[in-house]
Amino acid sequence: MGRQIICRNATLGYEDGIVTEGLDFTVSEGDYLCILGENGSGKSTLIKAFLGLRPQVSGEIEWCGDFSAKEIGYLPQQTSVQRDFPASVREIVLSGCLAKCGLRPFYNKYEKKLAEKTMEKLHINHLANRCYRELSGGQQQRVLLARALCATRKMLLLDEPVTALDPKAQTNLYELIASLNREGITIIMVSHDLNSALKYASHILHIGSKKQLFFGTKTNYLNSSAGLEFIETEGGKNA
Q1: In terms of domains, do 58 and 168 share one?
Q2: Would residue 129 count as lying in a domain?
Q3: Contact (CB, 8 A) for 27 and 188
Q4: 227: which of 99, 105, 130, 221 fits an S-S bond (Cβ 3.0–4.6 Å)?
Q5: Which pTM was predicted?
Q6: CA-wise closest residue to 49 among 188, 160, 193
Q7: Number of domain units in the chain
Q8: Quick one: average pLDDT of 129-150?
Q9: Domain range spanning residue 88?
């Protein structure tokens, strides 16, 4: 599998200071990388760097081959305002094709068909004409995941995707994400859910206070000092 992202000794921060530094890791095609860490450790800042919204202070984040930040499908944390968005499911899923439209003020047949196929794949095609804000939390997340898939079939970046979902909806969404990964889509997920990280991820990036604590396979993480300490602290529960 080819590499998609290489991070070399990257330092991330803002005008008022450094958030985290010494980030060294790679993401390859088909990986399922889970990013763990305490609040304020730099996970959100790293997401912004992946999306090209905030450049690193120093070091390098390299996009390999023909892969670029524009080919990331992004599923952000939802706010209460977003949950109340007054648009149809079809309109939201189609909006994932906006980057493909360029200067065109309309969607073409291919993009409309892509949206329909993606809704069918995620089992939400029967909701196409429903208003997004009338849906359950689990249904809304599937809609946003479908939107992200319309943007790319290479990599999905998921920021705490199961927040505020009930246990059944969480399990269903995790299983859906895992099935997409098995199809070859790279997954990068920021999570506080240690149990699910250890169940689904192939690799773990653990960021501590202003430094990287671990990067490697899930198996090696379970035997690392960072992993053992975090597992003991969390007690197998969500952070």
Answers
A1: yes
A2: yes
A3: yes
A4: 221
A5: 0.90
A6: 188
A7: 2
A8: 94
A9: 78-153
